[in-house]
Design a protein that fits this description.
The complex is a heterodimer of chains A (114) and B (113). Chain A is mainly beta and 114 residues long. Chain A contains no helices and eleven strands. Helices cover 0% and strands 49% of the residues of chain B. Classes of the chains: A mainly beta (114), B mainly beta (113). At the A-B interface, strand 4, strand 5 and strand 10 of A face strand 4, strand 5 and strand 10 of B.
């Protein structure tokens, strides 16, 4: 079992729909949680960054973290064709030595149909 | 908007040759990371620097990979000799400090023939 599980999709939804993307994880030491968007053959782009449990909203994006369930979500409201991309969840511990390399899910391929 | 710079963007090399990648982080970012991403997978950490010091290189295949950040700014990742299984996207990321958001560059796509 991988440390971070993410459904690879593809997930196809009509334009304007609310999109829900999710990841589960097994390492209870993870403290920092991030969501990245990656277009084909490009580097990942940081969308959301959260620390510990709770919700965070930024424009059309809302990130949720439930540490008790080891479950994180990203919601996209009013989805647009330009949102079509691969969405990667990522998380990290914070060791005493400062090591905080990210552990990523495989990514979910999202398609927004016009 | 400040960005992480990487070069080259694409590299094709033959098996057993040496190859090097360069990264210039966002100005003022003390922490620098190298990741490798195989097609269809998420990135995997190779090495993390804090300023010029290595913080974590536990996943770096040290028999063939080396990384340095001599002056605590830009960094070089080297592979010698390259193997077919090294074909992947090599991504550099930087953050203001450990525990803050990591920002990625465009990556170097390596093909080993």
């Amino acid at each position: 079992q991988k440390e971070v599980e993410q459904d690879p999709g593809p997930l196809s939804v009509p334009e304007g729909a609310i999109v829900s993307l999710n990841c589960t994880y097994s390492n209870s030491a993870f403290q920092y949680f991030m969501w990245y968007r990656q277009y084909s053959r490009k580097g990942p782009e940081l969308l959301m960054y959260t620390y510990s449990s709770g919700n965070k909203e930024d424009g059309r994006f809302t990130a949720q973290v439930d540490k008790s369930s080891k479950y994180i979500s990203l919601f996209i409201r009013d989805s647009q064709p330009s949102d079509s991309a691969t969405y990667l969840c990522a998380m990290s511990e914070r060791s005493g030595g400062g090591a905080d390399g990210l552990t990523f899910g495989k990514g979910t391929h999202l398609i927004i149909q016009p | 908007e400040a960005e992480v710079a990487q070069s080259p963007r694409y590299k094709i090399t033959e098996k057993s040759q040496a190859v090097a990648f360069w990264c210039d982080p966002i100005s003022g970012h003390a922490t620098l990371y190298w990741y490798r991403q195989i097609l269809g997978q998420g990135p995997e950490l190779l090495v993390q620097f804090q300023d010029e010091s290595v913080v974590d290189d536990s996943q770096l295949p040290k028999d063939r990979f080396s990384a340095e950040r001599l002056k605590g700014v830009d960094s070089t990742l080297k592979i010698q000799p390259a193997e077919l299984g090294d074909s992947a996207m090599y991504l550099c990321a930087s953050s203001f400090s450990a525990g803050t958001g990591q920002y990625f560059g465009p990556g170097t796509r390596l093909t080993v023939t």
